[in-house]
Design goal:
Blueprint (H helix, E strand, L loop, with lengths): L1 H23 L3 E10 L13 E2 L16 H4 L10 H4 L6 E10 L7 E5 L21 E11 L6 E6 L3 E5 L2 E8 L4 E6 H4 L6 E11 L7 E5 L2 E2 L11 H21 L1
Antiparallel strand pairs: 1-3, 1-5, 2-8, 3-4, 4-11, 5-10, 5-12, 6-9, 6-11, 7-8, 7-10
Helix pairs in contact: 1-5
Length: 256
Amino acid sequence: SPTGRAKMKHIAIATIGNLLCATAFAGSITLTGTVRDFSADGVNFEGSMSSGPGYVNSTLSGASPSLSATGASYISNSGPGAFNNWFTNSANSVSYSLVLNETAPGSGLYKYSNSAFFPIDNQLLGNAGNSHNYHFTYAIASTFSYVAGAGQTFDFTGDDDVWVFFNKKLGIDLGGVHGAQSQSVNLDTIMAGQASGDYSFDFFFAERHTTQSNLMITTSLVFKDPPTNVPEPGALALIGLGLAGLGALRRKNRAS
């Protein structure tokens, strides 16, 4: 009936409006992970100075990356600083959060930038006589909402090792000890063939040398946690579906 169609139209408009408002007023994203402290062992920490891509396998099959044949020739898997412990060791660890602020109101781009990323200074194993606690890893496991064809991006600049997996596929690959390096990912490339929906996000970072520690992220991804200041996962996809449904409803009304 005309009354029923009008009611459905108002509901659709209200739903889309609420989603758009949620997106427009999202001021920050918080990502929480675990920092793990290590001592300079002269092998993996204050050891090898080599760097390059291909140190880990391109598919994430467990809680942490696995060394490739290339990586195994540069990174040791034995001793207290063994690679197997980098992102799984439960001792000398603490929770730590990054807050990514929207670059401009309504931009949909969120950024965290720190050219002195030392989250555990004077904590856990301590600074070992240095100005900072330089030897640590940082891992984040979260979920992001992918919108097929939306051109969502994830840009990273930092040092030392950085590996970021999207839906268990390696997208950022900056292995080894090096100065700040950058890489960017367009999610439509790495997620080719995948439908819109929620997928895993896994971030791995290691600071292994007593020089500098940079960590900079700029992204348009919608992360699942926390849900307070960020649109619910799939909100962008729902907006698209809502607009499509509203268009169909209008066409139906005109036809009748």
